[in-house]
Each structure stands twice: as structure tokens, then as C-alpha cells.
Amino acid sequence: MSRLAGVSRMTVSRVLSDPELVLPTTRDKVLKAVADLGYVPDKTAGSLSSRRTGFIALMLPTLTNANFAAVAHGLTEALREANYHLLIAYTDYDMAEEERQLLNLLARRPEAIVLTGAMHRRNASRMLMAADVPVVEIADLPSQPIEHAIGFSNYQVGRTAARYLLDRGFTRIGAIAASPEGEVTDHRGEERMRGFEEELRLARRSTDGVLRHGTAPVSFHHGAAAFRALVERQPDIEAIFAVSDLSAVGAVMEAQRMNLRIPDDISIMGFGDFEIGREINPALTTIHVDFHALGLRTGKMLVDLLASDATPAPSTLDVGLRIVERASVKDR
Amino acid sequence: MSRLAGVSRMTVSRVLSDPELVLPTTRDKVLKAVADLGYVPDKTAGSLSSRRTGFIALMLPTLTNANFAAVAHGLTEALREANYHLLIAYTDYDMAEEERQLLNLLARRPEAIVLTGAMHRRNASRMLMAADVPVVEIADLPSQPIEHAIGFSNYQVGRTAARYLLDRGFTRIGAIAASPEGEVTDHRGEERMRGFEEELRLARRSTDGVLRHGTAPVSFHHGAAAFRALVERQPDIEAIFAVSDLSAVGAVMEAQRMNLRIPDDISIMGFGDFEIGREINPALTTIHVDFHALGLRTGKMLVDLLASDATPAPSTLDVGLRIVERASVKDR
DNA sequence: CTGAAAGCGCTTACAG
DNA sequence: CTGAAAGCGCTTACAG
């Protein structure tokens, strides 16, 4: 390559990374040779010698969830300008798998690690703390963050949902979620349930309508099945919080099949503000968190952080949440 | 590291890659040192020296689509045993972005490249053909594959959908999709439309009910808007094919809001067999392609292919498709 | 503005 | 069964 351009290997490297440093005439010679040969420099070699891989590791529970996919898209956007690339792994909600994937990621020497936060195996936490790169936990606010955290409180989501239903005067209030199963658990969903139950308890309301059913992750189908199970058990239930819009939509569809009118017979609210919730009839009342923005902010923070050589103190950022009132909860 | 274990660097490398080759006592010494130090070998260095990165590149239009996410999950599963890792990039349906991402991927020296097929920029195709690693195009069957292809014919999807509606005796038949817009186009969706129109033409039916509306990618909302536009233009339309279940579901929801009964007033069918289509009322008739299996098969083929040192001839595999009859098309 | 030397952390290919 | 040497393809840090 450098032979064809009649310059040293170093000059090629410079033209490709910082063209300003090179005389226009030599630059053009190099660029022509690059084009003629279809030369694509080997980043593996570059990474090794510069000690910078340009990788940002991202660990998600699954790709099959529009909100987590939105996080990835937001991150990519923010990272693009600084020419970092995402190295994506997913755990299928299994903490043993998280630990395994973490090792794979670490072996690639990412310059930062982003992962969905709050719950990790002991050994995974240890590896994360030992890693000498920035770690940011997202999509929750851990009580003891490993380092940085950008997210929202799932516990508060649960409390907010319960409060909303209580404020509207409902008394027989329930919820549907997956039941935690050892290593394979939706910990963030479970946090929402915990908050929901707590708010009910503080209001001295029964938590008998809170149903954990089936296994994570939740889905439309899961929501339908859980809704039916709950209504059969407690026919007089007035309002239900589903741990995700996915199960909430499933519940609305099941209600239609059971000839229950939403919201006249039963009110339903969800979490996550998925697109489908806006389109169904009645449109779904939900709690919104901007996952795309969450990814963007995380990416921006990382770009800044990696550009400076200072090691900033651990930071925690709450991106907040808001209720989106639509038509699936009765206005009474 | 090797100092702490009292052995050479080579012995550490052997213990980690092929433990059988090492005496149990030395092996244990090494393993203990590895655990004590939390040593994670640097794959960047390993890749450079062994000339094997262990990366398989995967280029998708978007992660925000359950079927493409399923492809990624299937691939990961098949690749896990052989210890390959996916390097994922996505294009947002933009061919200029595909070319840019391809360069990024190539610089990481993947051992194979998987991408959604059939349409690429000239320069991207050239890079792919010059790459001396296996290339497999998925999710379509290109007329001129770059090398391997595993997928189905989107054109046939369109023809099959039209045939199905024609066979049921509908005469005023329409379709909804996004309109192609230069570099940002859903080429596979457009192929389905082309097949659909062709089948209509062969049956000497009007294609006036075929509507291209808005930009890719389609969504629930897109389907709702396109459905309304089509019905307002052609109030006597009897049956509609939506280029994706996402838009089909949006159409069903919009029909409910317009007080049109599905399927009594208008029949609707989709493509992709997304989970939501099974849950809505009426359940959506659709055309099913097993994207998870598509990913699995691609991964298995790659594992075999990379294990042998022969260079097999280019292969094309049609995974087929099937109609899933549910309740959104009138039985007449 | 350009280049020669050294080295990043592993694995390959020997040698013993 | 274990190790010393060479080298993978770049970039860093000089030197001129």
C-alpha cells in the first residue's frame, strides 16, 4: 500500500487519521492509492498500538423490545460524531448470561461499558468495578451504582401508577406482571411492582389484586393471560396497572374478547409508552420514559468523558417520567 | 500474569485456549493466577496475531423491528457454540449509511458478513465482492447474489397475497406501503408491492387501489394514515394487503375508529406475523416467515463454512413462506 | 512535512 | 509438555 503511493507507512496513517498534517500533493497520492487498492486499514492493529479500540460496550436484556432498541439507536447517534462503535450483547434477562457476556465484552477492550442497571451477579459487579473504563448503568437508578447512572426509578414508576389510580377514586386496584424466577427475572419490572404494592399499602388498600403470573419477559400474550386470570379471580376489580404497555395492550385485547368495556368496566394503564399503545382503541394511558433520549444522553456523556483526561466523580442522572393520560382509565 | 503463575506467556495462552495440552499441575497454577488477577486476555491482540477476530458482521435496516431483532437473536444462538460474536450495524433503511457502516465493519476484519440483501450501492457491492470473507445476504433472494443468500422472495410474498385475495373472490383489491424515496427506501417492502401489482395485472384487475404513502419504515401510525387515505379515495374497496403487519394492525385500529367492521366491511391482511397481529380483534391474517430460524440457519451455515478450509460454491436457500389464516379476511 | 525504530499483547511455528 | 523467537499491522514518540 505505502509502496504504491511511494511514501512510508506512517504517511498513510497520517493521511487517514489527520490529513491536515500532510502536504496536499502527497495526500492526493496516498488517497489515490487507497482508492485504487480499496485499502481499508485494520482497526484491530490500530486498536492494539493506540490502545484505543473505539468500542463502547452495550449490554441489554433483549433486542426484541422497542424501548431497548431505542436506547441503542440513541447511543449510536451520539457516538457517531466521535467515531465510536457500539458492541452490543444481550442477556435474555438471565444474570448468568450477563456475566458470560461481560467477559466477552471485556476481552474486546471497550473504552466504556453501558448496561441496564441495578442488579448484577456478585462476580459481574466485581469485574465491572475492576474495569478501568467508565461504567454507566442505565434504565434504573441503583441504590449503589457501580459508577455512573442515567435512568429513572422503576420503584417510583410503580408508586406513581398506584397514586394515579388511587387519586381517581378506585378502591379495588390490581396489577399484572411476570413472576421472578431465579436468574431469569425482569428486575426492573419487579421494582415497579414493589413500588406499586408499597403505595397501595401506604393507602391501606389491599394488594390482593396484584398478580405475578408466568415468566419474564412479558408480552402481549402474557398480558392477555394474566388479565384473564386476574379478572376470574377478582371479578370486581376496577383498575389494573400492567408492568409494561405490552401486557397492557394484551389485557385490553383480552378484555374486548371477554366483552368487558375499557374503561367503563375496567380501567387499564401501562408503562413504557410503546407505539402500539397510542394506536389501540381506547388509546392506552401509560407512563412515559424517553428511552431514545436516555441513549442519546448516555452517549453524549461518554463522548465528553472520554475526550477529557480527568476522571470525573460518579454521577447519577434521573431522566424522570411522566404520565400520559389517554382513554383507557376511567375519568370519574 | 505469567510471572505470577511462574510459567511463560505461551503456557498461559495454551491453558486458556486448549487446556488439554497442559499438565494439570501447571494448568491449576495458571488458572489460580488468572482468578487472582481477574485476568481477561486481550482479544484485540489475539485477533491480530491469529488473524481471526471471531467477529461476524451483521447489517440490518433497523433494530426497532421485532423480525430483524429475531434474526439477530437466532444468529447469536447459532454462533455461541463456536464462540463467534456478532458485530451489529444498522442503516435506518438508508443506502448511503449502509455503505458507511460497511466500511466500519470491514475495518474490524469480521470473518463473515451478513446483510439484508438484494439492494446495495454500487460501491458497497464492490467492497463486498472484494472482501475475502463469506458474504451472505438474508431476508430476500437477490437475482444476482453477491455470494450466498438465505431468505425468501418478497416479490412472491406480494404475489401470494394478491392471489389469496383474488381466490376469495374479491374484485376491488388494494394495498398500502411507504413510497420509495431515493436512498431511504424499504426495498424489500417495495418488492412485495411489485409482486402484488403484477398478480393483479395478470388477473386483469385494476391496481388503482395500490397506495404508496409517507416514508419508510412503516409503522402502526403509518398504516392507520394510509388506510384512511385509501378508503377515502376508494370507499368501495373490499380487501387490502398491508406491506407489513405493523401497518395492517394500524389499519385495523383506524377501521375501528371509522366504524368499519373488519372483515365484514373490509378485509385486511399483512405480512410478517408479528406478535401483535395474533392478539388484536379480529386476529390478523398474514404471511409468515420464520425470521428466528432464518438467523439460526445463517449462523449454522457460517459455523460450518468457517470450520472447513474449502471455499464452497455460492449457495441460495429459500426458507419459504406460508399464509396464516386468521379472522381479518372475510370468508366468502 | 516525512520517516525509522520500537512496541502494543497476543499466537504461530518451531525447537527441545 | 513447555518455552524463546518472530511477527500480526498498525500508532506513538522521536528525530531530522
From TrEMBL, chains A, B:
<keyword id="KW-0805">Transcription regulation</keyword>
<protein>
    <submittedName>
        <fullName>LacI family transcriptional regulator</fullName>
    </submittedName>
</protein>
<keyword id="KW-0238">DNA-binding</keyword>
<dbReference type="InterPro" id="IPR028082">
    <property type="entry name" value="Peripla_BP_I"/>
</dbReference>
<dbReference type="Pfam" id="PF00356">
    <property type="entry name" value="LacI"/>
</dbReference>
<dbReference type="Pfam" id="PF13377">
    <property type="entry name" value="Peripla_BP_3"/>
</dbReference>
<dbReference type="InterPro" id="IPR046335">
    <property type="entry name" value="LacI/GalR-like_sensor"/>
</dbReference>
<feature type="domain" description="HTH lacI-type">
    <location>
        <begin position="1"/>
        <end position="50"/>
    </location>
</feature>
<dbReference type="InterPro" id="IPR010982">
    <property type="entry name" value="Lambda_DNA-bd_dom_sf"/>
</dbReference>
<dbReference type="InterPro" id="IPR000843">
    <property type="entry name" value="HTH_LacI"/>
</dbReference>
<keyword id="KW-0804">Transcription</keyword>
